[in-house]
Amino acid sequence: DKKPGAFMLENVKQLVNHDNGRTFKVILSKLKNLGYHTHWKVLNALDYGLPQKRERVIIVGFRENYPFLFPKPYANRIDLSEILEDHSKVDKKHFASERIVKKRMEKTKDKKIPKPSIWHENKRGDIGIHEFSCALRAGGSYNYLLVDGIRRLTPREQLLLQGFPKNFKINVTDNEVRKLAGNSVPVNLIRAVATNMLKAMNKMPLPREIAMQKEYKQKVLTQVMAH
């Protein structure tokens, strides 16, 4: 109804291949019929300064066919040590039980363990140890991610992993922060895309011939992804 001049949509990367790509094809077709020129790509928060592996499909659309390009990956990212709090200063309520810790240690006794690190337990029960966090999830198990294999992330750490500023006020419960952080977008990634959107809109729209060539290339790419 409002027909904004531009928009950005975000969703899990599995959307691209849902129903063999048909769902995504319908979304792009609907946006085109609404009069929008769209661009899409699966981006990872790891590539935009944050120590969190969070892959999401981003769809950008304009009513005018501006020369938009997705942002290039950053050269560096924040180190976990700049985000994680010292264990001695963390409330005991965030520490896993002795049983959980012992189980994690037994599964990883032969692995090289960097410090600091975040341990990720997948659905099979395998433990991955990384110098970054796997994607925060609102509905993940309580011990889905453990810092150094012994404690859960604090609310502040969760927000920092999503790119929120250190002075962001927390006025809700720990559980509510966990849900909010798990459902949020990575701020740095969204800022990078939005910045390029603004740059594109400050330029002249593409001539019709070039626009048609880009549209054809995007159509071919969508078909390839669907298969």
Write structural notes for this entry:
There is one protein chain. By secondary structure, this protein is of the alpha+beta class. The protein contains six helices and eight strands; from the N terminus they run βαβββαββββαααα. Strands 1-4-2 form a three-stranded antiparallel beta sheet, with helices on both faces. A three-stranded antiparallel beta sheet has the order 6-5-8, with no helix packed on it. A two-stranded parallel sheet has the order 3-7. β5 and β6 (127-130) form a beta hairpin. It is elongated, with a radius of gyration of 21 Å. 23% of the residues are buried. The model has no long low-confidence stretch (mean pLDDT 92).
Extended strand count: 8
Strand order, main sheet: write it out: 1-4-2
Tally of DSSP helical segments: 6
What is the residue-mean pLDDT, rounded to a whole number? Answer: 92
Briefly say what this structure is.
The protein has 227 residues and is α+β, with helices and mostly antiparallel strands. It is built from six helices and eight strands, in the order βαβββαββββαααα.
Topology, element by element:
Layout lengths: L5 E7 L9 H12 L3 E8 L7 E2 L1 E8 L35 H10 L10 E4 L5 E4 L2 E2 L10 E3 L7 H7 L12 H10 L3 H15 L6 H19 L1
